[in-house]
UniProtKB/TrEMBL annotation:
Protein's UniProt name: ABC transporter substrate-binding protein
PROSITE patterns from the UniProt entry: FE_B12_PBP, PROKAR_LIPOPROTEIN
Keywords, alphabetical: Signal
Pfam hit, one: Peripla_BP_2
Keyword Signal belongs to the record: yes
Superkingdom in the source lineage: Bacteria
This protein's record includes keyword Signal: yes
Domain Fe/B12 periplasmic-binding residue range list: 97-353
């Protein structure tokens, strides 16, 4: 099973006390530049705390909006021919009507400054700018009829977008379909952004966005407390469907936790698959100090009290100390422009005593 993304597991057999908002946003975008000259003491004094960065990040995520690149929207230089992850070469001649079939891809397109060209959305595109767009998925599967009715000039999909028959139908209608490898770890963000920008004819905007995200991630990591390495277990749960999984190597959360200065408890316990069914034995071996979950997953088991009733949870250090961190489903593992905000929040919350 591939890492759950956008709040759902993928398994087709191939498959989140500043005084003003302005100051809060400034902390996020300008932290790297602060203290870049002058003495070390001055730099340390001016660096924002993890709590301040997290507060700013939470305020941004609560608005559920994106921050496009500064300046005028880029003008695509077309045509371009790019490699598609399904082994094809795809030529894009028109980006006036873009249709991303994945929420994380849509975030990148909007942040590049091309949001006014997007004509529809996947169910996982939950940010405010996309909410009014027509949805082209049914129960997470793409509806070819809905896609074709929007007359897109280019479609961006993932290797796990399907069903395959629907993608073939879209392609057979003469619409360029660029397939991308899913982003399952932090290092994928740069590659994914570059490929999307190149496919849309705006490679310079892709480089600018990668630079911005790299600066934001560096500033978030700089706030990790020295000497702190808590063990954090990522639990993916859907109580209504009786899905109870613990993340291990390759879950996606392991990459985020490493960036936030924490140890992924599942990986540390020897879980070499992305997800393993939760057992009392697995939890006893993992012994997490903190549990990380998606918000809807926590809600699906009855909140914190319900979570603690699941066998083995209450006996972990995280359960005994009620150390649970939850982040919005559509953001936690989206691996896109808002991922630095996730790291800001994790750095603050998983290192608390």
């Amino acid at each position: 099973m591939r890492a759950p993304r956008g709040g759902r597991p993928v398994g087709r057999g191939t498959r989140r006390g500043l005084t003003a908002l302005g100051l809060a946003l400034a902390l996020l975008t300008g932290a790297c530049a602060q203290g870049s000259t002058g003495s070390a003491d001055t730099s340390e004094a001016s660096a924002p705390s993890a709590g301040a960065r997290a507060a700013a990040a939470q305020e941004r995520l609560a608005k559920n909006t994106l921050v496009p690149l500064e300046g005028e929207a880029p003008a695509p230089e077309l045509p371009v021919t790019v490699d598609s992850s399904d082994g094809r070469k795809v030529t894009v001649t028109d980006t006036s009507r873009i249709l991303p079939l994945n929420g994380g891809v849509a975030e990148i397109v909007f942040t590049l400054g091309l949001g006014d060209r997007v004509v529809g959305r996947d169910i996982t595109a939950t940010f405010e700018e996309a909410k009014k767009l027509p949805q082209v998925t049914k129960a997470h599967d793409v509806s070819a009829e809905s896609v074709l009715s929007l007359e897109p000039t280019v479609v961006l999909a993932d290797t796990d977008t399907g069903p395959g028959e629907a993608i073939d139908q879209i392609r057979d209608a003469g619409i360029p379909v660029v397939v991308l490898d899913p982003a399952t770890e932090l290092s994928d963000v740069t590659t994914r952004t570059t490929r999307i920008a190149e496919a849309l004819g705006v490679p310079a905007a892709g480089r600018a966005l990668n630079t911005r995200m790299s600066d934001e991630l560096a500033a978030a990591r700089a706030a990790v407390p020295e000497g702190s390495r808590p063990k954090v277990a990522f639990l993916y749960m859907r109580g209504s469907a009786a899905v109870y999984l613990i993340g291990g190597r390759g879950s996606g959360a392991d990459s985020l936790l490493d960036a936030a200065g924490a140890v992924d408890a599942g990986t540390d316990a020897g879980l070499d698959r992305p997800f393993t069914p939760i057992t009392t034995e697995a939890l006893a071996q993992a012994q997490p100090d903190v549990i990380l979950m998606m918000t809807k997953g926590l809600e699906s088991v009855g909140g914190l009290d319900g979570l603690l009733r699941i066998p083995g949870i209450a006996q972990t250090p995280a359960g005994m100390n009620r150390r649970i961190v939850d982040l919005e489903d559509g953001v936690l593992l989206s691996f896109g422009p808002r991922t630095p905000l996730v790291i800001d929040i994790l750095v603050d919350r998983v290192h608390r005593k």
